[in-house]
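Working notes for the structural subgroup meeting. M.R. asked for a predicted model of this chain before we commit to crystallization trials. I am recording the input and output together here so anyone reviewing the notebook later can reproduce the run.

Input as submitted:
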Amino acid sequence: MAPNLDFVFTVCDNAAKEVCPIWAGQPVTAHWGLPDPATAQGTTAEKAAAFAETVRMLNERIGSFLSLPLDKLSKLPLQKHLDDIGKVKAEAETA
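Returned structure, recorded in token form:
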């Protein structure tokens, strides 16, 4: 049996339209879509850069998540913050 989770983050752009499984314990979920670096084309250096960029974006989003006052936010405002982290960051990252 899977453990109850507090948070679930999906990151695959290709999975954004797929139905996610039901998570035990009704965790707060957010989709932080990122390009799949495994599909990067080009030289070895360009492929490595795609992986490095994905790591950078994840680090930035996780940092934003960790800076939230989790003990002071109820579920709905927390959900909005998590959705905003994925949306705003994605727009800036692709600009």
